[in-house]
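Help! Submission page says 'invalid entity' but I think these are all valid:
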Amino acid sequence: MKLICTTVFMLMLVTLAKAQPNYDVSLLPKELMPYASAVVRNEEISYEVKDLDNVIYHLKRVVTVLNKNGDDEGSIEVSYDKNTSIKYIKGMIYNEFGKPLTKFGEKDFSDNAAIDNSTLFADDRFKFYRSATGGYPYTVEYEYELRCKFSLTIRDWTPISSTNMAIEKSSYQFICKPDFLIRYKQLNLDSPVAIGNNTEGLKVYTWQALNKKALKSEPYSPSPRYFLPRVIVAPETFMYGNINGSFNNWEGMGKWINEKLLFKRGDIPAATIAYLAELTKGITDPKLKAKKIYEYMQEKTHYISVQVGIGGYQPFMASEVDRTGYGDCKALVNYTKALLDAVGVNSWYCIVNGNHDYKISFATDFATMGQANHVILCLPFKNDTTFLECTDQKIPFGYLSDFTDDRTLLACTPQGGKLMHTPAYGAQVNLQARKAGFTIDNNGLLTGSINTVFKGIQYDNREDILDEPVSEQRKLFPKLYPAINNLDVENYNFKQDKQVLPSITEDIKLNARDFATTDNGKLYFSLNPLNRTGRAPRDVRNRLTPLYINQGYTDDDEITYKLPAGYKLEFSPMDITLETPFGKFTANMVIEGDKLVFKRYIQLKQGTYSKELYSEFVNFYQKIADADNYNVSLVKN
Amino acid sequence: MNKFLPVVFCFILLSSLAHSQDFTYGENSPEELGMKKYNIDTAARAVVLNEYGKARISDDSEGNIRLSLDYHIKIKLLTTKGFDKAKVEILLRILSNSEEEASDIKGYTTYVDDNGTHQTVELDSKSIFTTKENKYWKTVKFTLPNLRPGCIIEYKYTTKSAALGSFPSWKLQDDIPKVNSKYDVHIPAFWNFNVSLRGPLKLTKNTAEFEKECFTWYGAKADCSFMVFQMDNIPAFVEEDYMTSPKNFMSAVYFELSDYTNPNTGQKIKVSKAWTDIDLNLKRSDYFGSQIKKKDQLKPYIAPVIAGKTDDLEKAKAVYAYIQKNIKWNKITSTGSENVRKALDSHSGTVGDINLALVAALNAAGIRTEAVLLSTRSNGFINKLYPVEDDFNYVVARANIGNETYMLDATDPLLGFDMLPLKCLNDQGRVMSLDKPSFWIDMLSLSKQRKSQTSSYNLTLQNNGKLKGTIVTYYNGYEGYEKRTAIKKFNTQDEYIEDLDERLVKTKILSLDITNLDSLDQPLVEKMEVEIDAFDNLNHNKLAFNPFFFDRITNNPFKLNERNYPVDKGMPSDDRFMLTVHLPADYVVDGTPQGVAMSLPNKGGKFITNFEAVGNTFTFSNVLQFTKSVYEAEEYPYLKEFYNKVIATEKAEIVFKKK
């Protein structure tokens, strides 16, 4: 009898558990715990296209926060704007045993504008809720629904969106009418899509990710889009604002942008056209003409973002920029294009993924708007294609910096979209070459001069200081050369050469008292006070991602020290050579009469290397750091 | 005397008909148009040519009393870096019964066009945007069009507010220089404000006059005082490293309501005249006194926490730990609480919620505890000329046990008992109790808080060139808090150790023990067994060794030739390091650097190194100590020179050789 009772009771428990999922933290799989500060217990994301201007996004998520570091995963941020409205938000917090603690709803959320500093206006907003309980761990369950009035862009599904977060289960569904055509691409997922129909006869595409361990951050790894799971979906026909459209490749997309988004947005006033004609009078070379126009545009405009109208992907009218002198990247590119058109120079509006840390190219086989975040301009001269960054008021004509260099972008031409690749600046091009001549006297005083040329991407090392007033420049030198204590710059000069491959030459005459230390009849000084690499990157055991070097460079330093009379080296001179697949380093010193000549050369080659090379990479930098820390020790003869 | 202390104004009202005036809108002199550089400050990216404000309390046309400000400014933008001054953001409060408004916005840019002639473009009203930031604030934003280096921008607007007590302060000084800045203030006698000037600069003109019957309100009439604050040739404020809030040093005029007469009833309402008024106010208020009084409501929460404990200090520590754990700080800074019990139940609260709950809970446990109002470092110094409740932005608890007092902030679960976060170590705090008059305490000099770290290394040089041995480090006081915070960034201790091992590329951590990680009142102790790659091999006759292999100071943090403001470190610090190295039997110490002992003036700090070698063992010890929290600008050269010596000393190496 007793036995039966227990069985019945247990059955009941099972039934109950089914009705109400069990969020007891002790049920978490042990193998998901390493590096995890939060675990997504279950996530269900879906899109349903009811109509081209009525798309429903639904998210349900249950996340267990294990400790303080996971609090952000337990907080909820829901973005919306005038084209995306929130239909509802609700949720519940559970304690570590899965017992409900606090129920919350939309009224508990704060409502905030999401505008950055350079934006004058945008209607982006977000609602925010911070979960809290009297301890850890705890579990938050929430769901919300958004209604989107557009179908041009569908958010990518990226189940792993941050480090230190494990996933028990995450799924993504795309639901539409059976005859609604979509394109999709899945990256780094274990299992393929499952396609079926639901009870309402709608077509359902389902992807899922199960039991993903938490990642820890790994320095020098490629962009997460190259190794994390992702699903990109693009409807073949769509609506954006009140513009209908369709495309299924880059060519079609470029054509659509050109014909729909840029249509009739290039008119500029007759007075401006007349002025441009005057400005370029006598110039026949189209490239020189374009340079003149580009510099005119730079002088006249500056970057401010205003997102009104359909905003997002459509630029301001060129006439508006002409009148106000400001705009965002789209507006400034569209304006520059209009100016060039006025003097008969052809150019293309190009969308690109701008990023200083990674060179992210468009997927050549899959066209979506979402891959771009920036706009630049292309001048398709024969055998001399030139790209222009129109959002920077100082950057030299034709130079792109590390924001858009060496990547595949889309040029929107009247003939359709065209994938192109921007120029790469290699290790040899990004050169910092320095020659210094110093004298050290018996009291440790250093006097002398430094000449340095900064080229390619390394041009950016000194670009900002040029704009500063003299008083600020003088304050900046001790920060640029922190290893010269008591630095006193007697005079200095900068020479800027704004070519397509720009350079800056810096000349400094300086002195520094107590540069060398005297102690017990010895004289010490730091051999390399000018160019120090700093700490080696953190080593990573059991690394998962390849070694990625975004930007190669070359530093070539030579310092000649004239030493005080009567001293000799205490130790044998330093002489180091390192050769690796990713770079090269040499550092050595030689005594020539009363002179000590120090040479240091480092070259790092950009690229992606096998993860096995990473510890060699750390070692490479550690050896450089050691060499940079070398102190010369002189003793009396 | 501290030249940065604010001064209070005493006005003798003179009756006069002379009226101050706004400068003419839209009029630019040839000098202004042609100016290429501001001669007084050639580094200026922009210069304010003229700035005028007129603030008054008056009857608006719709039958409301409003506080209005007419603001008008003209700026010359000299370089593209000055363009930030053309981006205007007017911050408006959303009050419970009305929103503040900005109106009559107009502006223009005058620039030299492509053909070399002066052009003027008006600010388009369509380019003025209002954004609701959140439920408390909205902003009106605009930017002046057609900016070019050398252009002049001018704009004006009017704001209106129903918050009559918040009289707009006037920032005379900005990060760009000003040729002229003038503020006209009209205050009907119904309102009385305390006025103070902050910053070391002197006013060029400062008058107070009498305006007869300038204010009428349903038959009630009042005279006004009309004050003018004017300053010419105001230098740009240049921020320096290691300073507290620039607000402490920038020249500005502040207004604080002291009392007013209700124009409808004729009733006089004292806002703040003396501390006794504020004390009474706070004691009675729902957001402060009433919360502290909730000790009976909190007793059921506290009873199990202190059950079985007899010692007051033990009880206090238990209550402190309980509040730390049970209310999570929601990142909002405040001095009051809507409801401390609600905060306890919802496990989430502001600074005020958490620390007033702590005050109430400690009192519930029978420990006499006061609330201490203070201003954080970023919020600036407190005005001590007269009491101003709004100057405070933070509150902590002060427990009295036996003859000792303990300062407590429960917003951070890693702060030990009697420890305040660095942001609170600023100026003075006001101790508020329900039964005694309030009083000041010095947050810096009375603070017992220190940052201190003591490491001892005991290493043996192996034949393979590696140093093997033990490193023991004690992290005391605030240093312990910072170390705990760093360790807790990791999910487990193992993950912390792994990370540390990965960072110290040349050091292999063979084992690591952490003691007292959760005993916040004890020093945190880290004991490591390590193997350090010191030398590639020992095939040399002579080897040099720098004892500062982990944290050698090579950069002087103090680089300025001239210093204007104090260096504020918040608390004293003390770093001690002792290293013992045992060399292989066939090696002997060849030379050690000379020991160094030096100190800062007025016992401000010291740096001592000492070397000792006996046979094949040498010992090196080092002390770096800063005994003051704040170093005056006059002491800056000493600090700079002190660091020079430290850097020079830390370059020196110990040499040893084969016998």
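Support: the input was valid. A stray whitespace character was the problem, and the output above is from the cleaned input. Chain A has three domains: 24-240, 247-421, 431-636.
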